[in-house]
Amino acid sequence: MRNPSDLRLSKTGSPCQLSGRRLAVKALCALPVSLLLASHMAWAAPATSEVNTTGLAVTDDTVTVGILHSVTGTMAIEVGVTLPDWMMGSYALSETIEIPINGIFVMVLTLFISLCVYLLMFRSRWGKQVRAVVLNRPMAGAVGINTEKIDRYTFGIGCGVAGIAGSAFTMIGSTGPTSGQLYIVDTFLVVVFGGAQSLLGTIASAFTISQSQSTLEFFLSGSMAKVITLLLVVGILMLRPQGLFALKIRH
Amino acid sequence: MQERAKALFMPRQDLIGFAVLALILIVILPLVLDVFRLNLVGKYLTYSFVALGLVLCWGYGGILSLGQGLFFGLGGYCMAMFLKLEASDPVSTKIQSTPGIPDFMDWNQITAIPWWWQPFNSLTLSLIAVVLVPTVFAFIISVAMFKRRVGGVYFAIITQALAAILTILIIGQQGYTGGVNGITDLRTLLGWDIRSDNAKLVLYFVNCILLFGCLLIAQFIRKNKLGRILVAMRDREERVRFSGYDVANFKIFVFCLAAAISSVGGAMFTLQVGFMSPSFVGIVPSIEMVIFCAVGGRLSILGAVYGSLLVNWAKTSFSESFPELWLFAMGALFIGVVMAFPNGLASLFLRYIEPYLPAWYHGKAKPVEPAEVVEKASLTSTDTQPETATSKSTEKQSDETVPVNSLEGGVYVD
Known about the structure:
The complex is a heterodimer.
Chain A: H1 4-13, H2 20-39, H3 68-73, E1 90-92, E2 98-100, H4 101-122, H5 125-135, H6 137-142, H7 147-170, H8 181-194, H9 199-219, H10 222-239
Antiparallel strand pairs in A: 1-2
Helix pairs in contact in A: 1-7, 4-5, 4-7, 5-7, 8-9, 8-10, 9-10
Chain B: H1 2-5, H2 12-32, H3 35-60, H4 68-87, H5 103-107, H6 123-146, H7 152-172, H8 174-177, E1 188-189, E2 192-193, H9 197-222, H10 225-235, H11 237-242, H12 247-273, H13 283-296, H14 301-321, H15 326-340, H16 344-353, H17 359-362, H18 370-380, H19 386-396, H20 404-411
Helix pairs in contact in B: 2-9, 3-9, 3-12, 3-13, 3-14, 4-6, 4-12, 6-12, 9-12, 10-12, 13-14, 14-15, 18-19, 18-20
């Protein structure tokens, strides 16, 4: 198999497999992950990727709630990925607009994963159990749901989706031991901004954040664009902590 | 009620704990280690300021902040700006195209010191800024969040995002902040060379004194009504609110205090290490600081010091002796601590060592402070659920004179 990302995909699939630096980062992540996620088991929500209208594909990250594992997902030794031939090149929409094929591939992959997560979360028995556990853990336990098992599986699937995000990411950017760190904040914010319990919100917020960032980058320097985008998101979250799409629930 | 409210500021156990720590830090380490190693220990101790802040804020107040590096960095940068201005006097920078400004500004074609650098010409203003800037920052963040009753994970994420924003900002604005290299080449403090061995020794002791000052503040809060309200707030926020306390104000206070303590650590870091860079501000250092706190025990103020010392010492010695394996070793340490004893080294001490200590350590039998019982209970039990912790503690301490009812009644002061 020539495509290294495929290998990595299978790697991230098995949670026990730890390679060199992944261990350290995983360890680093273990604490906040367990802290944040043990009690607040939100669910995996892959988000969107976007194809920039200027023709340069700025495909942003796929997102999960197993966020920190996006770090570990891509944690191999520094690799330059050789894309298979069919993924090279771009599709010319018109004379000025060209869309890279790898961008399209990642977008299709993302849509597919989003669909899978939707089906899993909202159309399966397991998804129903996850939602029950999130809404009211003691009651969910009382009606016979094994909440710990649900936690474990949810976390596992979240990590798996993050792993897919990582492997998709290598098709666009270079991957190194620290590349995941850059995305910790983005992924957290995307999920919170979208409303932690809304799949649609996550997609919308990922699109908004990445779009506004790349638009701002056109006018400002890259770092200032990032700073302003993040500040805006933080500001909005301070005004509207429940995020864009909040479930209306009586607690 | 009246008698119980009057907590002993320094019970015998804590006094001994403080004395042992003082003995180690002020007597044993300076005698045993050479100046280079002592300077390293001093560097580790600056992290313990942050860990101490986290014990108050996270362990007692229940507010997890993943952005303490922000305050550490702000304090450190305030100090570094003063030292840098002093280091770049017109005489020593005369080869620059604009003498008298910091070298990185000169490299970035900036010809005058920006207005917000001006206050850092004065040591007094700089020292005020070291504490004030991070505290004001923390105040703004926490008022915006806690008055809206946003907490928990959301707060952690926002603080983490802010730490990331500051890092990106510092790196991006190279002309004003020194960029990714940070503010380097700091030489003197009011003409006193901070790089000499003698200065390092003095700074180490200053650092220790400040640390003990902060520890005493923390101990004061812990043993006060304030500390008990914090614990109550952590475990039953609604109940404290319905008892008539403004929960948000307590959270704001403890978060600002943690920020102020962290900033002192940052300033001492700059003085002892001789530079400040964004790599001590961002997400990874902030998470590491949470780890120091967790390893030491997030409910133990002395544990925070031991935790940061141990983790950093392990980091240094692993990387010196096993350059290939040290990341594995660190990983094993973190996972081991989190898995095996979630409440850190302090819980090990309480469970396995304290019961076997001689009678003079425990002092004469006296009614145990309610706050302390709950605290101890959550330290000794591996479970973080307050209910189970309480019930376990009543089983364990049935030989002591605490009836079950007073336990709750004492914590949630009616």
